[in-house]
Amino acid sequence: MTIKEMQERKKELGLTYAQIAERSGLPVGTVQKVLGGITLTPRYDTIMALESVLGEEQPVAVRESARPYNVKKQGEYTLEDYYQYPDDIRVELIDGVIYYMSSPTSAH
């Protein structure tokens, strides 16, 4: 876990420096210097102590993937994706973007 990840995790958990210091057994000043970026190369033991407090609690199998459901972004679609649509749904594929060709819903 990097220092940047630890800073983000601290915000997620809503912990103060004092709470992290108490749980990790480190002095408050050390926690402030490491997470504040003042100490650029902290000792291995210090990193491990901080990681024990700020580390991920959920196992990898429980966490949600970075891209849920493996959904593509517009611009990433291919002919394979285009051919997966049923015949009754009208779509066009232009430059990797799927355009739905549905009828207007309101009177013109």
UniProtKB/TrEMBL annotation:
TM helices/strands, residue ranges: none
Pfam families: HTH_3
Molecular function terms, GO-annotated: DNA binding
Superkingdom of the organism of origin: Bacteria
Classification via InterPro entries: Cro/C1-type_HTH (IPR001387), Lambda_DNA-bd_dom_sf (IPR010982), Nuclease_put_TT1808 (IPR012296), Restrct_endonuc-II-like (IPR011335)
Location of the HTH cro/C1-type domain: 6-62
Protein name in the entry: Helix-turn-helix domain-containing protein
